[in-house]
Design a protein that fits this description.
Strand order of the largest sheet: 1-2
Radius of gyration: 17 Å
Helix content: 55-70%
Shape: globular
Length: 227
């Protein structure tokens, strides 16, 4: 039963999903920054589909095709050297997404910074993977925590409205940040419980993801950007 739960949290915390999570939270927090009234506006859903396709569907298909070609033994890529190809494929599409989110376009600077941070984290994990295996799941969770820290710093006074049963509840960005830290811990536990990583590899992942998000924020602000 515990392994089943670990698999569920590994799926929920998959690094491919981090930017989709970040976009949904930003749309819920401040939809007007995207030029829409809510998450369910056509323009918002189109952007969400675009980001999901660019960071989940297309890289996933590319990595899946590596298996019949004999480039990876399975989709989890348990061996360190087998992860090089998936990192490169995913990195190309992350860079492509970042370049297509032009300043002044459909996405506000904060989300573009999140994409840049995820890209930094991905290539950071790629570099560290040359020397030692690192948890990509932990890197994704570390990046998500960093992104929510930026959200709490950028819009501390705004709340996210979530539907719970028959009523709406308001959640502050700070509370989301706390919950993201808990989720990151659970995902790290799941990777350890499934015996896919060591504690050191998980901690490396957390650090890479978090530093990637903060590095993107530093570049955006020092370069004259306005989050």
């Amino acid at each position: 039963m515990s392994r089943f739960i670990a698999h569920i949290f590994s799926l929920v915390g998959h690094p491919f999903l981090v930017l989709t999570y970040a976009l949904i939270l930003l749309l819920l927090t401040s939809p007007y920054e995207f030029g829409v009234h809510s998450l369910f506006d056509k323009k918002a859903l189109t952007l969400l589909l675009y980001v999901f396709s660019s960071t989940v569907v297309i890289p996933g298909i590319g990595i899946a095709l590596m298996k019949p070609l004999g480039l990876i033994s399975n989709l989890q890529s348990p061996e360190r050297l087998e992860r090089i190809g998936p990192y490169i494929i995913t990195g190309v599409f992350y860079l492509w997404l970042y370049q297509n989110l032009k300043p002044g376009g459909v996405a506000p600077p904060l989300f573009r910074t999140c994409v840049l941070g995820a890209t930094f984290a991905l290539f950071g994990a790629f570099f560290v993977n040359i020397f030692t295996k690192v948890s990509a799941h932990a890197a994704g969770m570390g990046g998500l925590v960093g992104m929510l820290l930026l959200l709490a710093a950028r819009w501390p006074e705004r709340s996210i409205e979530l539907f719970a049963g028959n009523y709406w509840i308001q959640v502050s960005p700070f509370l989301l940040l706390v919950k993201s830290v808990l989720l990151a811990g659970i995902v790290g536990w799941a990777r350890l419980h499934l015996e896919l990583h060591t504690p050191r590899q998980v901690w490396y992942g957390y650090a890479i993801g978090f530093v990637g998000a903060l590095s993107a924020w530093w570049m955006s602000t020092s370069g004259g950007g306005n989050l």
